[in-house]
Amino acid sequence: GKLLLQLDYSTEDDVLIVGVVQGKGVICKTSVQTAQVLVQIYDENDRMLDERKIEIQPMTFEPQWNEEVLFALSGRPVTSLNVQVRLYELDSFSNQHVIGCIKLPLAEQSFEESRADWYDLEDEHKIECDYVGEVLLSLNYFPTTQRLTIVVLKARNLKIDNVSGLWGPLVKVFFHVNKRRVGRKRTAMQKKTFNPVYNEAFAFKVSQEAMPKITFRILVVSKTSHGQDEVLGHVTLGQNVIGSGFSHWSHMLATLRKPVAMWHPIIPFT
């Protein structure tokens, strides 16, 4: 998701103004859709100096706030400070769940003209890992027929080390219920390519009650005629995962009966 923010600095009053206008593409993590924004300022030593909460709003894909918060800087150079904006979701017990965070070093901001800009919400718990490629998957769920379909469309920029002899990437799909594997499918191998196209669909019968218990584990493997198969990495999809797998699952549930495609980074095994 993204937030539309406006930063301004009053030299006369020595006040930093942070305007939170709206969001878009915001994905909730619980069924209770209420959102709150927390704006914090930090010094150059990453020590929090002050914070402001913005009024709770109903959560939609494009929540609206149109509010400003002010921080008195008390003589601190504005370029030495950092602004952090966190978007929280509140569940039915008022517990906070972080949807994403935006970090803005004010040394990189221009205050000559006041304008609003879109900023990406980042996952605070994102795990940095080596890039080994991406896979394009599509999800579709029909509640009336209880049919959950995953389509392996293509992959790109695969990092394959062993390219001697006959080799080629394929994708394995593992279907889990309550963390127990109950189904397994695989695509055909696409010979000698780092950008394979599959367009293979796999359907599973799943009741609406069972949907929160479902997890897909996608394995990208390069088969070879010389030596052991090379496992590039995996992607996990479901309601109880983090990262792009959760976002994709949430988009599918929000647009039932329509296929939703998304690129996923392939996470290598460490």
UniProtKB/TrEMBL annotation:
Domain of life the protein comes from: Eukaryota
Classification via InterPro entries: C2_dom, C2_domain_sf
PROSITE patterns with a match to the protein in the record: C2
UniProt-recorded Gene Ontology molecular function terms: calcium ion sensor activity; calcium-dependent phospholipid binding; SNARE binding
Entry-linked SMART domains: C2
Domain C2: 1-119, 131-264
GO CC term, one of those recorded: exocytic vesicle
SUPFAM superfamilies per the UniProt record, alphabetical: C2 domain (Calcium/lipid-binding domain, CaLB) (SSF49562)
GO BP annotations, alphabetical order: regulation of calcium ion-dependent exocytosis; vesicle-mediated transport
Family annotation (PANTHER family): SYNAPTOTAGMIN, SYNAPTOTAGMIN 1
Protein name, as recorded: C2 domain-containing protein
Organism whose genome encodes this protein: Nematostella vectensis (Starlet sea anemone)
